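Help!! Second protein's tokens look totally different from the first
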Amino acid sequence: MLLGGIILLPLLVLPAYPDEGGQAVFFILPGCGAVLGGYLLALLIRGRPRGRLRKHQDAVIVVGAWLLAITLCAIPFLLTGNYNFTQAVFECTSGWSTTGLSVVEVEAAPRIFLMYRSVMLFFGGVGLVLVMLSVLSDSYGMRLYSAEGHADRLLPNLASSARTILAIYAGYILAGTVLYSIFGMDWFDALNHSIAALSTGGFSTRAASIGYYDSPAIELVTVLLMLLGCTNFLAHLYLIRGRLKNFFGYCEVRFCLFATAFVSPLLAGLLLTGGLSDTLPRALRDGLFQTVSALTTTGFQSIPGFAGFPGAALLVLILLQLIGGGTGSTAGGIKQFRIYILYKDLIWTLRDKFSHRRVVHDDAIRRPDGLQQVGTRTRGEVAGFVLLYLAVFALGSFILSCYGYPLAESMFEFSSALGTVGLSAGITAFDAPAGVLWTETAGMLLGRLEIYVVLLAAVRAAGDLKNGAAALAGQLKGRMRR
């Protein structure tokens, strides 16, 4: 029922664009159908006793909900007749995962569909489960909340935490829309770009993305929104309350600011020497913007494209896309928290080798709410996840290169999909091979929900199906004997 309401939301732009009234049927049919179908399903379970979730069933529910959201939201694209099933699923996966890779020609697309993509970015950014929990009690959702990748409660009550996150999210979007309007965007572009920047989604209403406006002020607003979008929601609560020491002391915020300050001039130099920026001020502008866009996994562009980009610049962007944004934010990637743990683990290991063996050290990192101890188990889990992530990255890049694309561009494109970034080297397009789009679709889903959750859901679902089939076979066999 919630998904049906989400599908119907773009109809709100029709009063401003009445000439697109004919497009309404593409949303009314699947939207109302989903609401009615959800209501009938709810009737089937009404009055049944409630049970406890078994091991890893939370992962099955989360992944199942996301697959259902992507499938239902693909129907409006299919009904237009302009997109096949692969393209429609790809676009919706990109929207829900806040990636921003697209097969839509935005300059020719109806505005109701452009708003529809932004609606998916909005709800995909905060998370489908989190939106549901904003109207449910704690007893329904802590395991689902954690399975979707949310690590922190902002308030003791989980439903209140969900509503607080939504309020913060909506407030930033409103502020971004106002600032964009002040600096020259019309209201429609301002709203869409504000949602896309904060959700680190990167869907634009212009083919040239942010580069269309060629405005330092608009780029600055976008950089600020992207940085806010990639920051942990718990850190936002301290920022809003004016506790700046807690906010800027947080290890991820410090890592993000340091990486931006270090990489931006490096990328600017590569753009300048490669002839992609004609002056030093322009190179510094583009270097800052593209560094933040890649690191926050947003995917906005201030330069024409990345096809034929210098190899060194592509490598820098690939590394940023792999690192990604903060935990508990709208961003994807390995996450800065894990990279910071690996860095500190290296420092701690070297320190221990040179220290006296009887010296005891306190290994901890700083979070917004205080110090967090980092034990051997945490270090092992982080290292394991990073290794698995890089293995998936290598496999996806290999598959894209098998279609004849250069290895550097294949790595760039799949790191963009897996990191839910949205920058493209020209591989992703309306006429891209179906195998390429499905590979990137899988990468986007794995990147958004994080690989372990999807693997656990697949294993648990396979086991449940096997047990269910065995039980059904036993029942049939018993009836035959009678």
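Here's the second one for comparison:
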Amino acid sequence: MSDTRNETVPEIPAATDGYDVVVVGGGAAGLNAALVLARACRRVAVVDAGQPRNAPAERMGGFLSRDGVSPAALLETGRAELAGYGVDLLDARVDHVEPVPGPDPAFDVHLAGGPALRARRVVVATGLRDGLPELPGLAERWGRDVLHCPYCHGYEVRDRPLGVLGTHPGAVPQALLLRQWSADVVLLAHTLELSADDRAKLAARGVRVVEGEIKRVVVTDDRLRGVELADGTAVPREAVFLFPHLVPRDALLFGLACERDAQGWVTTDQVGRTSVPGVWAVGNVADPRAQVVTAAGAGAAAAFALNHDLVDEDVERALALAAA
């Protein structure tokens, strides 16, 4: 679940007899799912709490026709497109989703401090949050010059002195990958135990290892200047990368008893269908590796399949009426 944008309960549209689909989460996955469903003439609402994961980033990379666009601009454009199709856009937080008894899937989507929206299907696209190590300075620079994804940000810091913080087992592969963007990459070992094989790969790739625990990142004049170790050693760097602890915002899914995999992530099929009939999960809440462009694609794929699911239900209802 996302956090609220504000404490005001949104005004619910007058036509509240029910939606075909309520999408929870207004990032790329949720908005693209809503767009495809709206173009299929489905009645759709999007409930969004307004704190996307990539909000700290100035621009996106690797999204055809949107390369370099700010995350906020993408969402603003998407919301405007949805409004043109009559999608109801609600700035609110969903407290919980409750199944409605009956022969076909249906749900009441309860807004925090407000009413419930009745929906035939629910798409959960609430994303994840990045858990950062508790080192001074990291959170303030996150998405600026303290970074995670080389494919998202590597080009912008190419050929600069880069550091990788050894705060996660994924730091070694990350350092090996970053060497693609810069000849000057340092792995700051911190508390990470490096195997002989790790050290051999890093050396072969030209990545220098700096031993010692990290004290803080050093920032002056609103720019990252390097990393200070516990012994006072300064390691000059212009940007540093780390592997965050990925925490899915999945409380809604597990409140509905959706199945998890061995790592604790919701299980879905290739189009986002969960183990609970009528409930779909797309984007980072289900796939921690999804970038904006792939999350949008996952939202579209889910919408196609979900609409066919609704068509099948519509046909069964029509047959039942014809036989009555």
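Reply: Different proteins will give different token patterns, so don't panic. The chain has two domains: 19-129+245-323, 133-241.
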